[in-house]
Write a structure and sequence with these properties.
By secondary structure, this protein is α/β, with parallel strands linked by helices. It is 39% helix and 21% strand.
């Protein structure tokens, strides 16, 4: 039951009414027996700094951040972790003693989902990431940090690809679409295939047995890319485990307790 003592966490975005985060986090708080509640605030583009300032005014202890606010929040918080600073993006804010700290839990969420859903350890793997936006950059950095042998970035704009690949340090490269054929792990971090978009972000004939293909899109659960990859013998996974993984990391940052990930995953699947 929500009382005057209940602690509050929230997600901000524009739009945000479609978000699965309230279902995921409220299930987690219930499973952990914590007197917390999680709500969604639709914050218009350009007003993210106001939302960060409101955390202290209203006593909001945790904030999830989604499009289009991640860069603006990174500039508005009192401090950022090294990951968030390198990415120039924040998806989780912790408020303690009147100060706000920006975190990026997307990379850890991706790695957790990769292990939990597909039992894949990226150490030593040849990886290709399609896209150079915020999610792509977090994946590139996390794969390099996990010991990938190489992380190639494929993007239509070479300048953005160069910046994204730099986040992988010496194992990062810029590559063309053909590099997919030699990859152990392929990650689609573009919106191609989302919703009613029936497009493919690559030539599916480049895919085959022995590969793992992950699409960060989770609506629909099986995108055209995943369907094509499975038909060619590749193992596949969508973006829902990453969503749960990044939420679990945020839960621990806010509460100091281990996240009840099974309850969170069940809530995500039920709400999806």
């Amino acid at each position: 039951m929500v009382t005057a003592a209940t602690r509050v966490a929230a997600v901000i975005g524009d739009p945000v009414r479609h978000s699965l985060s309230p279902a995921i986090h409220n299930a987690a708080f219930a499973a952990a027996g914590l007197d917390w509640v999680y709500v969604a605030f639709e914050v218009p583009a350009g007003r993210a700094a106001d939302a960060v300032r409101a955390m202290d005014v209203l006593g909001i202890d945790g904030l999830s951040v989604t499009m289009p606010h991640k860069a603006d929040v990174a500039a508005a918080v009192d401090s950022c972790t090294p990951d968030a600073l390198a990415l120039g993006a924040v998806n989780c804010v912790v408020r303690r003693h009147g100060r706000t700290t920006g975190h990026s839990t997307d990379g850890d969420g991706f790695l957790w989902g990769l292990q939990d859903d597909l039992s894949v350890d990226p150490s030593g793997l040849r990886c290709v990431v399609l896209g150079a936006g915020g999610a792509a950059r977090a994946v590139v950095r996390s794969l390099a940090g996990a010991g990938a042998a190489s992380v190639a970035v494929v993007n239509r704009t070479e300048e953005r690809a160069v910046r994204a690949a730099a986040l992988a340090g010496p194992v990062g490269t810029v590559a063309g679409p053909g590099s997919v054929a030699d990859a152990d792990l392929v990650v689609n971090a573009t919106p191609v295939g989302m919703g009613d978009d029936g497009g493919l972000p690559l030539d599916p004939d480049l895919l085959g047995p022995g590969q793992v293909v992950v699409d960060l899109v989770y609506h629909p659960a099986t995108t055209p890319l995943l369907e094509a990859a499975a038909a060619r013998g590749a193992r596949t996974g969508n973006g829902l485990p990453m969503l749960v993984g990044q939420a679990a990391a945020a839960f621990t940052l806010w509460t100091g307790e281990a996240a009840p990930v099974r309850a969170m995953a069940a809530a995500a699947s039920a709400a999806h």
